[in-house]
Write a structure and sequence with these properties.
about 50% helix
Length: about 80
């Protein structure tokens, strides 16, 4: 995580190869007739990133810049 000048909240740093792999997952889902498994894997990755982000903000006493959803979809992978 890092906070850029002029920004109130920190952001996640994502390596280019990780971002490319996520893009490839989403492309595979879009190109397939039934991309549910691929989308589930991509969603799991995003939930993992959000979990790390939220933990880091909590450890530093920073309020989330968004409201958490009422349900816990995606937390189980």
């Amino acid at each position: 995580m890092l906070r850029l000048p002029g920004r109130r909240f920190p952001g996640l740093f994502v390596q280019g190869d990780t971002l490319s792999a996520l893009r490839d997952l989403l492309d595979a889902a879009a190109d397939s007739g039934d991309g549910a498994d691929v989308l589930a894997e991509a969603r799991s990755t995003v939930y993992e990133w959000l979990h790390c982000y939220e933990d880091a903000l909590d450890k530093h006493g920073i309020t989330l810049p968004y409201a958490k959803p009422a349900d816990n979809r995606g937390e189980d992978g």
